[in-house]
Amino acid sequence: MAGKVFFSVSMSLDGFIAPESTAELMGRQWMELQRWIFPQRFFRENLKLGGGGEEGRDNDIVRETFERTGASVMGKRMFDAGEEMWPEEAPFHTPVFVVTHDKRDPWERPGGTTFHFVNDGIEAALEQARAAAGDRDVRIAGGGAAILQYVNAGLVDEFSVALSPVLFGSGIRLFEGVDAGRVALEQVRAEPTRRVTHLTYAVRER
Length: 206
Known about the structure:
The protein is α/β, with parallel strands linked by helices. The protein has one domain: Dihydrofolate Reductase, subunit A, CATH 3.40.430.10. It has 6 helices and 11 strands. The strands form 2 sheets. It has a 9-stranded mixed β-sheet. One of its GO terms (biological process) is riboflavin biosynthetic process. One of its GO terms (molecular function) is 5-amino-6-(5-phosphoribosylamino)uracil reductase activity. It comes from Nonomuraea gerenzanensis.
């Protein structure tokens, strides 16, 4: 049986998941937003940032999210930013399907990540990702525009938000432009830790 389609993001208290400009992705606000994940042992090991790191519920959630993911889908904006920032061994270790208008051959990276470039829309990318994921889940990795497209198309089953005690004031809102008339949510879990509050919702058609 095919797995779920989900996304998992960090979000500021005022609803933003990223700065407006990709040039600011490693800036102060974004680093504050992601502060909870950088010390986690699994995250450090996956990105080969050195030994050590924290263990606990935050670390468990990072590991569980990685382990449930059999393939990922992302938008071109996220790929372009990541292509510059990710290490040579990209952190996905699964097939990744990039929704784009550009035509490009698959890009294989060390460690099991291969980027495939899909030119015929979000549903085609998801269909390919499902086939690659097998019985594991498909993660809509981002960015915000790609996530919103999948939510509005009724293609997301579940999502998790790590609500971080940070205020952005401006940037990319997670649900800017959501079709609220057709999307209903059911809370699955709310789990506070020392650094963030992890919120999980099932997505239903209204």
